[in-house]
Amino acid sequence: MAKMILSVDGGGIRGAAVTQFLTHVENQLQKEHKLSVRDCVDFYAGTSTGSIIALALATTDLTIAQINDLYNPDTAKEIFTENKVFPGIGSLGLETPKYEAGGKTKVLQTNFGSARINNVPQDKHVLAVTYGISQRQPQIIKSTKAVDRELFASAVADASSAAPTYFPTKELEIAEQDHWLIDGGVIANNPTMCAIAESRKVWHGTAMNDFRVLSIGTGYCTRKVNGPSSQKWGAIQWFTEGHILDILTDEMVVAYQAITIMKPGSYIRVNAEMRQQPGLPNPPDDAMDDVSASNISKLKKMGDWWFEQYGESVVQLLRDTYSGPSLDRINPATGTPMKHQPE
Keywords for this entry (predicted)? Predict the structure, then answer.
């Protein structure tokens, strides 16, 4: 039987574009086919803000409209509560995390309630990518692993979104052992390959050609890094001017791997550069923590634009009726998705 994977990247507040896009997809599925995104997806995967979205879909009763509403200015400001310990340089995330942990933890606990990983429906699965700093290795928390199934979904989302320099490390007890976890974006900001690998292991009797993948990014950063100046930079300059975390969490290699190994027409990558282009005259700021009302509005308009470009194809992919080519991110020269041509 064919299996559908939904994978969502990390990107902080830029997840607003994803939830806006999925809201449109959900509305069209319900209106035209009396289906929901949940009816169509077998495996959910997320990193950081993507894990919040994936876990909300997989383990809670929150509607997609309610998940979308989490990305509003008031809630965002509660999540991104500035750390007051070290004013000035501390606000840059150099001497202490830029933001306090309490706001994000409270929002997640309030909205996820008592949901645990084992609340995922029967024969469906979810994974969230984190990184264990004590063990110095990826920590993929997943419903296919017995010791992970009793974990609270809110705590897992909290750990997966604990971006270094932005939020404090998250302590999580797994199998009676303490794990210190940070944002999985440091090793797999795009969790698509993790999802494909785990899905293949779970449904080992399903042929590779029977898997379909909807992979959604959170916008591609395009701000320039000054090459000549970078030759003289140390740690502080790489963080403040080189935006090193954006470089480390680049998702394009995984996107290339996924579109290459998937059967033509079974993969759609929804993403775009966050710069002015046809269809996106007023692009959002690419910062993961720009929670101004104006920027969130721009992010949601980017999600509207994504639906205009990908919506019908994505609905068909979810319903297993899509017959077009695999689609990649939007070409900024044309404002339309790139069609993958296998070599």
Answer: Hydrolase, Lipid degradation, Lipid metabolism
Least confident of 27-31, 148-152, 218-222, 267-271: 218-222
Q: Using CA atoms, how far apart are residues 242 and 173, in angstroms rounded to an integer?
A: 35
Is the pTM higher than 0.70? The answer reads: yes
Task: Check if 183 is active-site.
Answer: yes
List CB contacts of 89: < 8 A, sequence separation 6 or more: 95
Half-sphere exposure of 308 (CA within 13 A, CB side): 13
Give the residue among 258, 243, 291 at the shortest CA–CA distance from 5: 258
Question: Domain span at residue 88?
Answer: 3-339
Q: What is the CA radius of gyration of the chain?
A: 19
Predicted local distance difference test score (pLDDT) of residue 188: 85
User: What is the C-alpha separation between 239 and 252, in angstroms, rounded?
Assistant: 21
Highest average pLDDT, of 49-58, 168-177, 255-264, comes from 49-58
CATH number at residue 155: 3.40.1090.10
Catalytic-residue membership of 178 = no
> Nearest-5° angle of CA 325, CA 329, CA 335?
100
CA 123 to chain centre: 23
Q: Look at the chain and report how many structural domains it folds into.
A: 1
Catalytic residue among 7, 9, 42, 48: 48
Residue 327 has pLDDT above 50, yes or no: yes
Which DSSP state fits 136?
A: T
Reported as a single tens digit per residue, the pLDDT across 202-238 is 999 999 999 999 999 999 876 655 566 656 556 556 4
Active site residue: 183, 286, 289, 328, which one?
183
d(CA 309, CA 304): 9
Which residues have a Cβ under 8 Å from the Cβ of 256 and sit 6 or more positions away?
none
